[in-house]
Sequence to fold (762 residues):
Amino acid sequence: MPNYELLNNVDHKNVKVITDRAARYGDNVHCVMTFPTEFRRIQSCYPIFFQKDANTGKFFPLALLGFEEGENLFLTENGWDANYVPLMIQRHPFLIGYQEDSEAPEGKRPVVSIDMDSPRVSESEGETVFLPHGGTSEFLTAMTEVLEEIQVGHQMNDAFIEALLEFDLIESVSMEIGLNDGSKRQLLGLYTINEERLDQLDGEALGKLQKLGFLLPVYMILASLSSFRTLIDKRNERLEVA
Amino acid sequence: MSKPVNTVVIVGGGTAGWLTAGLLAAEYCARPDSAFRVVLIESPDVGPIGVGEGTWPTMRLSLEKIGVSETDFIRECDASFKQGTRFCAWQEGHDEYYYHPFTPPQGFNELTLGQYWWPHRKQVSFADAVSPQGKASDLALAPKQIVTPEFASVLNYGYHLDAGKFSGFLAAHCTEKLGVTHILDNVVAINSTESGDIQSLTTQSGETLEGDLFVDCTGFAALLIGKHFEIPYQSRREFLFNDRALAVQVPRSEPDEPIASTTLSTAQGAGWIWDIGLPSRRGVGYAYSSDHTDDEQAEADLRTYLSGISDAAFAESCTPRQIKFSPGYRKELWHRNCVAIGLSGGFVEPLEASALVMIELSAKMLAEQLPANRAVMDIVARRFNEKFRYHWHRIVEFLKLHYVLSRRSDTEYWRENRDPKTIPADLQESLDLWRYQSPWRDDLPQFDELFSAASYQYVLYGMDFETRAPDVDRRSFTANRAVAEDLFTDNNRRTAQLLKALPTNRELIGKVHEVGFQKI
Fold:
């Protein structure tokens, strides 16, 4: 169970964070949530799909990293094998928490928390979080930016999905992947952009999506599908090694 | 040219009236200013009877066709999911029970499992051997997850709903979205054409309401089909004894009490008690035979049941409402330019929730086959009558099946129910045959039977009826034994999976209220 603490330069002055990518740090996931602002970076490496949150049934976009639970095809013995590491992987062991603040909008303000039970947390190796005199390290500044982008992205996802549903642009896909050894993998519960519907949208609808800033992300999702081939190739490579 | 059918006037604003209005208007794109109109006139003085709170899975299709969202429906009609019926104390009159679930047995289209299950009957009930739904219902689990799209299912389901809220919900949708004209007024006179058709209705406020087709949804009053046309009512009381009901709404003692996955039907000395769980209350009622008990005793028996499920003060002090009915149906359901849908056409005890499904089927056929003009109306009427008389006949037979298989002999009611004089000849014939062959497609003559062979199997084998394995060596029977064993194993595996994956009804309904289902 994660054990989150409000990050501060007193309790956590000696904390270091390991940034290596490996299964032992929890990077062996087959998908991660992503956000419209991140799609451009994601689509060059990973296919983007939608999935429903098991708790709420709400759609959210994700980057697909593997074909089954625990399979991350980009994770190798030498770390992460792709140009870009998704925000939701980069963020560990940090998280945005909220603190009550009557002066902030909605009565709460975002604060940085750290999971002290994460295997990434160390005192001996990794990136420094706070400078000797208590100042913020470059690493922490970068991480704060990651967390901010995630926080904004979360809110944008809700609006993005709402707009897509309004125009019936989401459709379910079921895929069966045939691997070189003749075995098959079934991908269930994934959704994508309904291209036929997108082609049929009139100027008014397209204008609305454009104005909301959602037209580019829609095309980024379509473009990302060419990365699907990378996944299959990587999976086949593993067959040869094994 | 014969007069076209352009205006359909529906009399009565209960569930029957609004479901018919919705299905018709959705199909024909009715608008108040278009050539085709649907007008519903409802008395401001007569409330709906407010029973009929259990549906079949067909209701999902009807709601989808009408164009409402399942989320809105569940939120506004206090609805929950119904996965079948649990019959308690029907075999021996003790604490035994069996399920008639909505999901057909595994491999239902390939083979029947009854004869293969029989040797295992001491270890596992038929329903549990062939479907996960009984086990899921034991745990009050939902038939789907929040990620399942609206109207889609993991296990087959219909609904339990608040009938009063349901008519209001449909009325709002019909008038706001589907262009149905709604008139609140009393019908004071029915005016005929020379030929004897209904030409128009005169209302209390002095209006004349002309129409080409009139739908009688006036409930037991049967204003058009009964009072006006005097179409005789065919009683089926010689087969189905129950002619009274005492109904009461029971508040939930705890707001998060589990919501049952099935209608509970508990056999009594002279009938049976229904128990329908909605999120905010339960609807409970005793359907009984006035020849076999009196009203005081029936009320006392109902209170005894209530004391087991609610607090003692409520069980003692509540005032059940009495409904008297004659089990049966009209000899003609469509006469001239008038068709009866709902209680005006017929009613039997709600043992298999046949009331709402008969409304849906009638309205569906009306919408699909609405005669283009008066000249062809009699042809459609004749077909409609044939079909629905047949449906009624089969309902009576299927309900009776529940009684004849009972081994109860504690009261005259149960003994008399097994008296051959009270058993329809067709049913007796089928029962003789089912001793040697399982009910399947072949012995149900029509392609759109109301109760499929799956329903017959669930009731027969739930009630410990034996279909004997063949005495001689039969190639297909032996060959299918392995298939049957595989299906049983499959069912076990699927049951275990679903019991882990499905939320409880209470959890899922909470989420539907909070976030709702996705359309896809």
About this structure: The interface with chain A takes residues 145-148, 511, 514-520 of chain B (CB under 8 Å). The radius of gyration of chain B is 23 Å. Residues 374-404 of chain B form the longest helix (31 residues). The CA atoms of residues 234 and 329 of chain B lie 5 Å apart.
